[in-house]
Every structure is written in C-alpha cells, then in structure tokens.
Amino acid sequence: MRICRVSSSLLCAFACSLALLKTEQATAFQSTRSRVATKPVVSSIASVRGGGKQDADQPLGLVQKVKTVVRKCAGVHAKPPAASSWSESFHTFAGVLVNLLVLTYMNTKLIESHGKGASIVLGPFGALATLCYILPGAPPSQPKNAILGQSLSVTLAILLKKIPLSTFWTMEARVSFTTALAIGLMAKFGWTHPPAGAATLLFASNPALGWSHLGVLLLANVVTLVLSSIINNLSPTRQYPIFWGLGRSKKEP
Prior knowledge:
mainly alpha
C-alpha cells in the first residue's frame, strides 16, 4: 500500500509539472505573437513621424566610425620586423654601392656623349635599390612591377603634360592628379612599384623630361634588375627574383 501511495504521489507531481510547463510555453508563444504583431505598428508609427529613429541613429553611426578609426590608428600591437644581421647588412650595402656606381657611371657617360637629354633620372633608383636589396621577396620589388609600373606611370606623366596649363589645370593639379592616377592604376593592374610613383611626380613636375628620358630610365631599370639578380643570389639566404611575370601566366589545370 505504501508503494502505491508513493507511486500515486509521483504521478501527481509529474502531472502538475507537465501542466505548468505547458502553461509557460503557451505564455511564451503569446508573448512572441504580440511582439511580432506590434513591430509593424511601431515601424509604421515611426515612418509617419518622419523616421525619427533613423535620424537618431545617424550621430551614433558617426561616433562609432570615429572610434573605429582611432582604434585602428593605435595599431594591432604586432612585433616590428627583426633587424638584419651584420653580414646581411653588409651584403645590402655592397649590392647598393655596386648598383649605384654602375648607374651613376652610365649617367655620366650618357651626358658626355648625348647631352642632358639622355640623362638618367636617378631619384627613383634609391627607392628601387632599397626594395631589391632589403625586400627582395616583396611583390613591388619584382621585375614585372618595376618594368610595367614604370612604363605605365611615366607614360601617363608625359601624356598629361601635353594638356596646357589653365585656371583649373594648374601645375599643382597636374602633378597631384597624374601621380594619384598612376598609383591607382598600378594598384588596379597589380603592378605596384613605389619608385614608379616617385618617377611620375618628377616627370609631371619637370617640363624638360620626355620620351628619351623614359627610355633611359627603363634601361637603367633593366641594369638594376640584372645586377640585383646576380648580387642577391650570391647570398645563400636570398632569392631574387621570386617571379619575372613578364609573359602570359600559365593557367592551372
């Protein structure tokens, strides 16, 4: 008898719990339906009032953007690149020295034989030597970027110099627009090459620089790339170039 009473008590408790659970589920369902039903009403009221909620959100969006910019400017606290060893630094020094000695000697001989119209615009080659001997594996250092980036950028500079200066097309506007356009197009085509940006600015701002200087500039680029390939690959820890990329790329099967 005691077992029967205990069993009946447990059954009653289980039935009460089940009834309570069904009551809670029904209440939650009714609450969800009421929220769904009132949402369009609230939205319509907001639209009738002129979208006040959307207007209130705009300052918050601007503040959030400012906070995001400030947070990004703080950096991601990554470790800076390690310094080069003495042997690597000396290899870089020797490579840049030999390269610039060859280019400056070429420049002197070209001026002596053909005049200043055949001189090399040497400014960008300090940046090119930095790329080739410190960052030989970086994409902007590769021959494809050097040749195509320089060709595109300087060609733009020479062509846009043909437009006469005016009230709106001033020297400042020409130099800024030409350089910005060249850098943007290099990014678009995948030919990013920082020395080409420097060469564009020099060609756009100097009326005396023209097609002959572009030809000599490309010749000096080829000389630099050949010397960089030889000198870099004398080191067991360096590889240059990573790719040439001047022909058509092979499609993957």
